[in-house]
Amino acid sequence: MSGKRNDRGAAAPNARGPSQLPSATGALILVVTTMFLARVMFTPIFESPLFQMIPDMGAVAVVFWQGASAATSYLFLFSGVALAWSVRPGERLRRFWRRRFLELYPAHLITLVAAIVLFSFVPMFPVDPGVAVLNGTLLHAWFPQLEIWTSFNSSSWVVSCELLFALCFPVLMALIGRIRPERLWAWTGGVVALIFLMPLVATALPDHLAAPYPGHEFLGVPDSQFWFVTKFPPVRMLEFVLGIFLARIVRTGRRLPFGVRGATLLLVVSYAVAPLFPLTYPMVAVMAVPMGLVIAALAAADDAGRRSWLNSRVMVWLGGHFWAVYLWSLLVLNAGVALLVGGFDWLTGIAVVVLLLGITLLLAWLQDVLVQRPIMRRLAEPEGRREAGSGLVRAEADGPRA
User: pTM value?
Assistant: First the structure.
C-alpha cells in the first residue's frame, strides 16, 4: 500500500489527497449495467418465453435474479467502503449528513416525480397519495407490503436503505475506528456470521406479512422472508457495516486473503454455486463475502497506485454516474416496454435494449450536469460557514482502543 503509516497503524493521507477508489468506482458501471440487463430478462421485450416474467422460469430466472441481487450487494458494500475511506476526521455531523442527503435525495425526488408522471399516463400501478408520501420520505422499504416498497420507482428502496446507513455511519465509524487493527478480521467474521444468520431469522416471520410478489415464485420462499432478507434496511445495513470493516482492514495494512484476480475468481465460483443453497441465501449471504473481497482488493490496488482498465478515465467517469443510472434504469425500461409493446425478435430486441440503455445513460448525465453538480457545489460545502456540533469521527487521529 502507498503512503506512510502512522504509529497507530492507520494510513496517512497521500500527498495527492485521499484516494477516491477509482477502480471500485469504475466497476460500478459494470454493476449497474448488469442490473439493467438482469431486469431486461424480466420484461417482455423479446418474443422468446425465456425472457418473459413467468413463474416457471426455474433455474434461468434464479440466475438472472441473483445477478441483480449481487449488484445490489456491491452498491451497499461500496457505500460502506467509500464513506469509511473518505471520512474526514473532525467533520461536523451536520455537514456530513447534509452532504450525504444531497448526494442521495435529489436524484430520488427527480425519479419519483418522473414515475408519478409516467404512471399517470401508463396504468402500471395506481398513484396512491399515501404510498407516495412513504416513498417521498424514504420510509417505504420498512414496509413488507409489495405495493409500498415497490411503489413508483421500485429501485428507490435502495435509497431508503442508504438513508439509514448515512444516519448511522458516524456512530458506526466511531465504534469500528476504535477496534485495534489486529482484531479487525475477527470482528469482520462476526458481521459475516450475522449476514448468514438472517435467512434463518426470516423463517420466523409470518407469511401473511407481505402480499404475493408476482414473478419470483421460483425462489420457493415466502414473500415475507424475501422482503426481510433482501429489502429490510437494518438487515441490509450489515453489508454496509462489512464495507466499513473492509475499508479499515485495507487502510490499516491488514493482509487480504486474495488479490483482485483471486477475489474475482471466488466471486465467479460463488455465483455458480449460490443456487444450490436453500432459502434466501443466494440473494445476499453467499455473494456478500466474495463481493466485499473484490472491492477491498480493488481498493488496495488503488492505494498501491496500480493502473488498470477499471481506473481509466472513461470507466471512472461512467462509474461516477452510477447512482443516476441505477435510479433511471427501471423507469426507462418500464416506459420503453409500455411505448414499444415488446415481443421483438432477437436482433430488434437487442437494438431496443441498447437504445434504452443509451437513454438511461443520457438521462443520468443530464441529471448530473443540470441538477446534481449545481446542488453539491452550492449547498453541500457552503464557503465561510462555521457549524456548531461535535466532530464526525476522530478514530484515525485518536487511535484504536478496543
Answer: 0.86
